Amino acid sequence: MPRAKRRDLLSKRVLGYVNWHRGRKYVHRREVLNLLTHDLTERKPDHIAVTGDLVNLGLPEEFIRAAEWLHHLGPPRRVTAIPGNHDAYVRLHPERGTRHWQPYMESNEAGELLVPTPPTLFPFVRRFGDVALVALSSAIPTMPFIAAGKVGSLQRGLLGEALTRLGREGLFRVVLIHHPPLPGQAGWHRGLRDAGRTTRVMKQSGVELVLHGHNHEQTVFEFETVSGPAIVVGVPSASEAVEGRVPAARYNEYAIARVDGGFRCEMVGRAVADVGEHIWECERRVLRER
Length: 290
Ligand SMILES: [Fe+2]
Prior knowledge:
- The chain is α/β, with parallel strands linked by helices and 290 residues long.
- Helices cover 26% and strands 24% of the residues.
- It contains 6 helices and 11 strands.
- Strands 3-4-5-6-8-7 form a 6-stranded mixed β-sheet. A 3-stranded antiparallel β-sheet has the order 9-10-11.
- Helix 5 packs parallel to helix 6 (195-205).
- The mean pLDDT is 90.
- The site of fe (ii) ion has 7 residues, from loops.
């Protein structure tokens, strides 16, 4: 985190700044992130999805550093990012904030052909062969100590339309959202305010996989949709590692393949074994056979 100027702290940020120096900086560590990032890029995945948060206080300099990190992961055509609650920590002019990540937060040509991006920029769709990513923003500025999020009725409506259309095309639909989408996955202070309504849209339109962050915890849930089961996976933070504490920093790899009458999807978890040491395969699990 960059050093904050006094005028940048005249807001909710001052509490976050104190929080950071009191504890978070010992938990979220750059060397851990670097170790994980290195392992990830070495394995040359087809695509990387980053579900936020990317910054802490929303200082203008943090957005630039986060953009550099995204660039280090790969070019925008191979990396998709969505904002988290910290990325909307304070109301910041977009030019100084998430605009720096714009190339990572827009549809590709194949996605745009199927589902055009609305003027509000979310949801945007990217398509890679049989896989379509539908990227939502649940980031909203909130009062201090509140880390809640919201999809909103406009995005929910467009999400339903996008999922229906992509389902008709027979694609494997992956929704990206920062906050855990199911009701009860996070409390009022830090949860998705319209979790119930968002989940209902996904049930009615169909989705195969939902990826989220925010809880800093590995979780797998399943719910039924009109087109079969949907799997919801939460991933731990990519920088959080305190010796001996679980969950350690981790990312998940997904192998998605078309099989007879459906899709097979296998998840491989890769985590920091011990601070500053190495990355190991901590889990391998078939999420769906077809
Ligand atoms: Fe978050």
